[in-house]
Amino acid sequence: MSQKIYSLLKTTVTVFIFVTSPVLMSCKPGYTPKPRGFYRIDFPEKNYKYLSGKFPYQFQIPVYSEILPDRQNPDKTDWINVTVPENNAEVHISYYDLPDSKDVDREILARLIEESRTLAYKHSVKASSINEKLYINRSKNVFGTVYRIEGNAASPVQFFLTDSTTHFLRGALYIRSTPDIDSLKPVIEFLEADVIRIIESTTWN
Fold it and tell me: N or C: which end of the chain has fewer CB within 10 A?
């Protein structure tokens, strides 16, 4: 084989390899990222029952919930947790008996209202928005404010209720899971209805 033919053949092979290499490489299966998966959540049917026990307040709770004392405040016998084990969630209820003195009553009531607002807005760091809505039920003498906390907050709903003279009740829904608004949204919407039921059914004893 002459040197000229050999050089021509070598050049042809080199060009062929150079041209076909990207094509051959592109035949490999491409990587397609898998969409984010979420846990399947089966929610129970909505049914409610009245809170049992001697408390200065009364409201309805879901039948799939449990009532546990507040272990962090054992001396506060009227502080309870309405827990929903299946969803790793709870509604923390704290209660304050307002004093008889009107002057002291107004001062303490104002402080408790401001504390409730402060506790709700502590979640503003991770919240996309916080919406306040007044709640008024004159027939039951129950008044208050509901805070809906949007975004990756551990407590998506908080509220306080009072009769302005004797009773003050504060509630906060906590999801005991890593906040992820995409995966927890169905759970939040399901439990939010239970919180609203607690609020709307609250009466004083």
Answer: N
Average confidence score pLDDT of the chain = 83
Q: How many structural domains comprise the chain?
A: 1
CB 41 within 8 A of CB 59: no
DSSP secondary structure letter of residue 36: P
At residue 30, the 3 state secondary structure works out as: coil
Distance CA 167, CA 95 (A): 8
pLDDT, tens only, 106-118: 889 999 999 999 9
Structure tokens at 178: 């890593």
Q: How far apart are the first and last CA of the chain?
A: 110
27 located within any domain: no
For residue 29, is it within any domain?
no
CA–CA distances in Å: residue 167 to residues 40, 77, 87, 100: 41, 15, 30, 11
Whether residue 172 contacts residue 82, with contact meaning beta carbons closer than 8 Å, is answered with: no
User: Whole-model pTM above 0.85?
Assistant: no
Question: Residue 198 in contact with residue 82, Cβ under 8 Å?
Answer: yes
> 33 CB contacts (<8 Å, ≥6 apart)?
none
Q: Which of 92, 73, 76, 72 is nearest to 84 (CA)?
A: 92
In a domain, 172, yes or no: yes
Range of the domain at 57: 48-204
Contact 51, 58 (CB under 8 A): yes
- Tokens 């979420």 -> residue: 38
